[in-house]
Hints:
Layout: H1 11-72, E1 84-89, E2 92-99, E3 104-111, E4 114-121
Antiparallel strand pairs: 1-2, 2-3, 3-4
Amino acid sequence: MLKFYRLERTGHNQGFILLSTVLIFSFVGVLGLSLVEYLTVRQSSIALEIDRAKALYLAEAGLSHAIYEIKNDFDEDGNGLGNVETTELGGGHYCSEHDPHVLVITGVGEYNQVKRRVQIKYSPL
Length: 125
C-alpha cells in the first residue's frame, strides 16, 4: 500500500518565502537605480561631447572666415586681414586672429561655455 505524506506549512516556510521575495525585490531595485545612474552620467557626457564638437566646428568657421578675407584681400570689418570679430552662429560664436609676422591664423569657437581653439600655420606662395 502506498503512503502519501503531506507537508504541513509552518511559519518557517512562510518566513523563507517572504525573505526571498524581499531579497529579490531589493536586488532588482538596486540594479534599476544603478542603471538610472549610469544613463544619467552617460547622457551628461554625450551632451558635453556634442558641445565640444559644436565649439570645434565654430572654431573652424572662424578659420574659414579668416582665410576668405586673406584670400580675397578683403577686410570685411576693418580690423586687419584675417582678424574676425566675435560672430554669432548656430547658438554659439566664433572669432579669429591672424598674425602675419609668424604666418599663423587662430580660430576660436565657443558653445555652451565650451571653448575650442584651432590654429594653422601657413607659408606664403
